[in-house]
Input
Amino acid sequence: MTTNPVNFLGSHEPSWLRSAGVPLFISHRRLMRLKRTLPVAIAPWALDSGGFSELSLYGGWKTTPSEYVDATIRYDREIGKLQFAAPQDWMCESEMLARTGMTIVDHQRLTVDNYVLLQHTFRFRSPLAEFRF
Output
């Protein structure tokens, strides 16, 4: 059985989840601003961790893995149709390496460590969820 790949359209606008009708890629940094009601998705979507913004602004992650997992579980429960959540990766562009003062190897190690921690934390807190990091 062959399945066709799905392309997710990156969007800065979380409200499009309720109306676009196409798979969207929405940033956690945009969704976290919505404290009360979240849009209910009418199509599959994926969660971007907002890593480029966090590393650019702060030189590291301000959002802890625990906070990110809790937010992801909330988004899955309230928005629905979440297909996957991107890990809190450490990009390896020269701009990011200069910002953090670390090496590519450091960033790769931190990315893998974060992925493992997210998987463990998520499985512990939401063992029945259908999406994965």
About this structure: The chain has a mean pLDDT of 93. Residues 9-125 form one domain.
